[in-house]
Design goal:
Layout: E1 10-14, H1 18-30, E2 34-38, H2 41-51, E3 55-59, H3 67-74, E4 80-85, H4 90-98, E5 103-106, H5 111-129, E6 132-135, E7 138-141, E8 146-149, E9 152-154, H6 158-169, H7 177-185, H8 194-207, E10 215-218, E11 222-225
Parallel strand pairs: 1-2, 1-3, 3-4, 4-5
Antiparallel strand pairs: 6-7, 7-8, 8-9, 10-11
Helix pairs in contact: 2-3, 6-7, 6-8
Length: 227
């Protein structure tokens, strides 16, 4: 079986203290996370649009746009927000949680505690999402086998469903035709490799992906789910 690439959790650190941001980024990269940093609220919002983090480590006191506002604007299903504050104030913690933060950590803190809290939140998120896959406008429920796109419910054949599930479990990763054939058609398939191209076309049509922006062709390599 062709080995599929492993995804890394993307972490956005929003912190205007450069030394602290660098220390956190170095530690999280060592632990296997993909990390980028933003030094103020405005930069955080722009970076989040392109980087699409699964975890946001967010300082409350930021230049330009404060952490409260950033939290509100970055909060969405499937994303963990852990807020940092220099004040051990109950009202601050309550405000952050009310605005959508998942956890709170008071400075100064030990890196291993931050790491443990991130991992705990990711485990919780994984349990919640194990039966629900989503990317952009596409939603797939593994329990009911229901699929929704931007225009509403989508009817898929079993093979189309399996292909979409494969893409959704490996977002933004390039999958070769061999990898797709192994996972969707099985190792015993010895037919035409062009069947992958045909079924990708079916999926694009049913999902309304006329411009191939959702399921992208990577010439010479395969296909990628990405926006």
């Amino acid at each position: 079986m062709a080995k599929l690439p492993q995804s890394r959790v993307r972490v956005l650190i929003v912190e205007d203290e450069a030394n602290l941001a660098e220390m956190l980024a170095m530690g999280l990269r060592y632990e296997g996370f993909e990390v980028t940093c933003a030094a103020d609220g405005s930069q955080a919002l722009g970076t989040a649009r392109s980087f699409d983090p699964q975890v946001v480590v967010l300082d409350v006191m930021l230049p330009q746009i404060d952490g409260w506002s950033v939290c509100q604007r970055l909060r969405r299903p499937g994303r963990v927000i852990l807020m940092l504050t220099a004040r051990d104030d109950v009202d601050d913690r309550v405000r952050g949680l009310d605005l959508g933060a998942d956890d709170y950590l008071v400075k100064p803190f030990a890196f291993r505690e931050l790491l443990a809290r991130i991992r705990a939140q990711l485990r919780h998120l994984h349990r919640e999402q194990s039966d629900r896959l989503e990317f952009g406008p596409v939603r797939l429920d593994r329990c009911t086998h229901q699929v929704r796109g931007a225009a509403g419910p989508v009817e898929l054949t079993p093979r189309e469903y399996d292909l979409l599930e494969l893409f959704l479990t490996h977002p933004r990763q390039v999958l070769s035709k061999d990898q797709i054939l192994d996972r969707v058609w099985g190792q015993g398939y010895f037919g035409d490799h062009n069947v992958v191209e045909v079924y990708v076309g079916y999926l694009r049509q049913k999902l309304g992906d006329r411009d191939h922006l959702l399921i992208q062709t990577v010439r010479g390599f395969g296909y990628r789910l990405g926006q």
